[in-house]
Amino acid sequence: MASMVIKINKSTLSLIEGDITKQDTDAIVNAANKTLRGGGGVDGAIHRAGGPKILEECIKIGRCETGGAVITSGGNLKAKFVVHTVGPVYRDGLHRDPELLSNAYANCLKLASSKGIKSIAFPSISTGAYGYPVEDAAEIALKTVIDYLKEHSDIELVRFVLFGQKALEVYERVLKRLI
Q1: How does pLDDT run across 27-72, given as a tens digit for each residue?
Q2: Closest CA to 137 of 112, 100, 164, 165
Q3: What's 79's DSSP letter?
Q4: Which neighbouring-strand residues pair with 8?
Q5: Mean pLDDT score, 162-175
Q6: Which strand (E) or helix (H) includes residue 34?
Q7: 100 pLDDT exceeds 60?
Q8: Which amino acids are annotated catalytic?
Q9: What is the mean pLDDT of the chain?
Q10: In this structure, are strands 69-73 and 119-122 parallel, antiparallel, or unpaired?
Q11: Are 109 and 8 a contacting pair, CB within 8 Å?
């Protein structure tokens, strides 16, 4: 199933190609928009698969700023929770784009730790409609997760669920470079 698996302290980091809505991790991450009202891409797929309960909880929360993270139940998903985060819309990588993308991953992990979540699946945040170049995004995502797992062993599994073989290959190449 996993194309690449590495150990970081007591934790496992894995890369797979697949559908994030079908993951059996404790939590999956939704690349949401600030209004938390559902949308296209991963966001729309999670809301469709998870059913109306997720949207009801999102409406109660209200909104999430770029780089932030909020949590809802998983509705009809296998995952018990959905951690919603808002990645940056890519401009040129020179403003706060890298910092905001790193914050999105880090805040998801911090929230997961605070809720006792042991396994979490991430999509490639901001690389779809928000236009972040996959190679740059992969480097930020993987570095942020690796740095977090080096300091925190409470999350046992972080899985990147990538859409399409091309995205998977980019993440594999970047991960090999980082380890």
Answers
A1: 999 999 999 999 889 999 999 999 999 999 999 999 999 999 999 9
A2: 100
A3: S
A4: 11
A5: 96
A6: none
A7: yes
A8: 43
A9: 96
A10: unpaired
A11: no
What domains sit in the chain, N to C, each tagged with a CATH number?
4-178 (3.40.220.10)
Q: Report the alpha-carbon distance of residue 84 to residue 100 in Å, rounded.
A: 14
| 152 closest CA partner among 104, 179, 120, 122 | 120
Which string of DSSP letters, residue by residue, matches 81-124? EEEEEBPPPPS-SSSSHHHHHHHHHHHHHHHHHHTT--EEEE--
d(CA 13, CA 176): 12
- Cβ atoms < 10 Å from Cβ of 153: 11
Q: Residue 65: name the closest of 34, 99, 101 by CA.
A: 34
| E strands present in the chain | 4-8, 11-17, 27-31, 69-73, 81-85, 119-122, 157-162
Q: Are strands 157-162 and 4-8 parallel, antiparallel or unpaired?
A: unpaired
Report d(CA 128, CA 57) in Å as an integer: 24
Is the confidence at residue 1, as pLDDT, over 60? Answer: no
Query: Following CA atoms 153, 178, 84, 37 in sequence, which dihedral angle do they give, to the nearest 10 degrees?
Result: -170
Please report, for residues 24, 80, 98, 110, the alpha-carbon distance to residue 116 in angstroms, rounded to integers and kept in the order given.
Answer: 16, 12, 27, 10
